[in-house]
Amino acid sequence: MERKQHQNGRAGLRALASGGGSMCLEQTVSGDDTPYPYEVIKESADFLLSRTKLRPKIGVICGSGLGALAEQLEDRDIFPYDTIPNFPVSTVAGHAGRMVIGTLDGVAVMCMQGRFHSYEGYPLWKCAMPVRVMKLMGVDQLLVTNAAGGINRQFNIGDIMIIKDHINMQGFAGDSPLRGRNDERYGPRFPAMNNAYDRTLRQKTLELVKELGLQDVVREGVYVMLGGPTYETVAELNLLRVVGVDAVGMSTVPEVVVARHCGMRVFAFSLITNMCIIEYETEAKASHTEVIETATMRQKDLQKLARLIIKIMSEDGYEAGDE
Ligand SMILES: O=P(O)(O)O[C@@H]1C[C@H](O)[C@@H](CO)O1
Ligand SMILES: Nc1nc2[nH]cnc2c(=O)[nH]1
């Protein structure tokens, strides 16, 4: 049953966080270079906690065209992003821009129906700030999904790639959602990033996809995030192939880095919405229309897979620090 759509958020510390406030916060929050302080994130978390009875321990981030999972939740509380204090807003087609808190098969889940991308003009820390909000609300396991272009020639459009590792290309260039003063309340200055994508969750999922009849379309591979909004040139794709990338997208890595920094257990998958074009002699072009069309077409199977992963997560009952 749909419960309510919240309309009346407060700007809260937003003015303060963007430099419009007073006191010492003003000195520490000077603009897009500096991640929101703990108190600002807590204000967003407290806002949501005070307006839902549910206490989700599992978070989900829906990629381009993949937001229909949020429609499957029962007993939903819905918060458009522009009603949540300090939240950015979604500007991309296929990203509804709402936080949906509800239950799926009896498990409390909070689901971002749409995410934030660097190409929208957001710094990486802001793309990932909802993960910290989830953390302060009690979430300790995160399912991240995205639409991606297939680079691995064994892949087909519509395949689902379980992410086993990523290449943080922006990190190579000195940018990171963790750039700036480290707040030890989240995690250490230098977090490890091997096994970022939980091995047990990946193994269990791979064992169980047969029950869903998805064994022929589920793969594992390496994801790279580029800044976008351009799709790749042929030369760029050839480079990515050489360094072992299986799928390319424009998201996910900042969210996973921030989630791992604060001790969350992470599972992520890419829907291969298009095969990257690696021939020069062609009129074909990558397009967001194709991305959304494939996502819409594969909606049902993605929901089945997400339900399975959420079931595995809830049965495992992970808590931060368990590894
Ligand atoms: O939010 P995701 O990563 O799923 O969306 C991908 C990357 C771009 O936002 C868009 C390009 O078509 O799809
Ligand atoms: N960078 C990138 N992002 C995508 N998202 C969906 N498809 C693609 C793609 O081919 N390239």
From TrEMBL:
InterPro entries: Nucleoside_phosphorylase_d (IPR000845), Nucleoside_phosphorylase_sf (IPR035994), Pur_Nuc_Pase_Ino/Guo-sp (IPR011270), Purine_phosphorylase (IPR011268). It catalyses: 2'-deoxyinosine + phosphate = 2-deoxy-alpha-D-ribose 1-phosphate + hypoxanthine; guanosine + phosphate = alpha-D-ribose 1-phosphate + guanine; 2'-deoxyguanosine + phosphate = 2-deoxy-alpha-D-ribose 1-phosphate + guanine; inosine + phosphate = alpha-D-ribose 1-phosphate + hypoxanthine. One of its GO terms (cellular component) is cytoplasm. Pfam families: PNP_UDP_1. GO terms for molecular function: purine-nucleoside phosphorylase activity. Its EC number is 2.4.2.1. Phosphate binds at residues 64, 95, 115-117, 147, 251. The purine nucleoside phosphorylases catalyze the phosphorolytic breakdown of the N-glycosidic bond in the beta-(deoxy)ribonucleoside molecules, with the formation of the corresponding free purine bases and pentose-1-phosphate. A purine D-ribonucleoside binds at residues 232, 274. One of its GO terms (biological process) is nucleoside metabolic process. It is an enzyme of class 2 (transferase). It comes from the Eukaryota. This is Purine nucleoside phosphorylase. Residues 57-310 form the Nucleoside phosphorylase domain. NCBIfam families: PNPH, PNPH-PUNA-XAPA, PRK08202.1. Belongs to the PNP/MTAP phosphorylase family. Keywords: Glycosyltransferase, Transferase. Pathway: Purine metabolism; purine nucleoside salvage.
